[in-house]
Amino acid sequence: MCGRYSRMHLIALIIIFSLRNHLAMTEPIEGFSKLSKQQKIDWITENFTHNAHASKTLIKRYWNTDSILQQLHDEFIENTITNYYLPFGIAPNFLINDRLYAIPMAIEESSVVAAASRAAKFWFGRGGFKAKVLGTEKIGQVHFMFAGDGHKLRAFFNHVKPILIEDAAPITKKMKARGGGITHIELRDKTAQLPNYYQLHCTFETKDAMGANFINSCLEQFARTLKGEAQRFEDLGDEGKNIEVVMSILSNYVPNCLVRAEVSCPVEELKIDGATAPEEIAHKIVRAVNIAEIEPHRAVTHNKGIMNGIDAVVLATGNDFRAVEAGIHAYACKGGHYTSLTHAEIVNGIFTFSIEIPLALGTVGGLTNLHPLVKLALEILGNPSAPELMQIVAVAGLAQNFAAVSSLVTTGIQEGHMKMHLLNILNQLGATEQEKKEMIQHFKKHTATHNAVVEAFEQLRNP
Ligand code: MEV
Predict the structure, then answer these.
(1) Could you write out the three-class secondary structure of 165-193?
(2) Which residue is closest in CA terms to ligand 1's atom 7?
(3) Which residue owns the Cα nearest ligand 1 atom 3?
(4) What is the CA radius of gyration of the chain?
(5) What pLDDT does residue 401 have?
(6) What is the model's pLDDT at position 406?
(7) Cα separation of 278 and 350, whole Å?
(8) So what's the pLDDT on residue 1?
(9) Which parts of the chain sit beneath pLDDT 50?
(10) Is 303's C-beta closer than 6 angstroms to any atom of ligand 1?
């Protein structure tokens, strides 16, 4: 009886708790951003968690003890309540254009740094990576609507173009001194796709800055000038007065901000595992890449492996990985279907593996000047220029893809993956340091699957 009462009691408590949460979630909070950090934490933990330790996790375990550093992080975004850590690892031995790099990577996936390091070491002995920047052009657009005669609009554009540049001079002054600025402004007629729709399609050189703020400021100035001058340009008539600027924003699709990286060696040097002949490996890699070139399902996963390397370096160096992801995937579709970003071939007995990707990166401005770990990551890379960083990032993507594809066509991916994942499983099981050592030894000789690890661990504890 007593047992049943306590069970009912428990059910009632759960219902009250879920109702309370339900109510909390349906009623919006006003002025959340104005609450203190502690008040925000109290509100979120009281209303959205059943976890008695939530507050301790957020504050004691994740706040930085250095209050200045913590404040810096708090101010990066709105409504910060704590920090979110990712492992920051190093993939050494990258020989790129005859210079040796140790590449910092911020990533949670267990096998990525190990795979990059393996590929770096492999190619170190075969001449290393060669990389080249093919272009550094950034793009921004003013999207606007004009209902009048397109020929008159073009005449107006020819008149206004120098004024656009002149009015933006206060914004471009510093960038010009660094060798950058506005490189081209073009009027694009898009009315065939959308009635009355035109663009100012603008290109920029932003040197070592990613340039988002610079470009957007220029574009917003272009929009003001465009509207103002159109009012005064008599030939446009009333339609000129009614030009509607829809938006002014940079484009993350930068197909002319391009970098290429490659590795190559005689086929007979492609000794990856003891079991497979180099010629066979070379052919298998080429075939795997050919599949990714024509088959979108495989291409997406193939490119995801590339992004494992790219995102990790982009993140470690404080760059915008969402912009990079969006731009690279759009580039992978440029021929009309989604395809592989890497290519492989065997010509006259030489195996070549290459990548070509757009990358808009910065090594000055943004987080690069603010975030202490980002600064350190850049220092580890020798404080590269933006074009040099483009080469390093492209190489990280190529190395990652080489490691993944060469494993896939030989041993399979799980062997290496599970070895790296072993520690995660052991940590979940609460293994001691000694137990971890013994399990690592054990799985040098056995295949590590999740079940096999759990079973072996139970055996170890209860022989
Ligand atoms: C896993 O994060 C990445 C891979 O799936 C990439 C690939 O399949 O090429 C291993």
Answers:
(1) HHHCHHHHHHHHHCCCEEEEEEEEECCCC
(2) 302
(3) 305
(4) 28
(5) 98
(6) 96
(7) 12
(8) 36
(9) 1-4, 15, 19, 22-24
(10) no
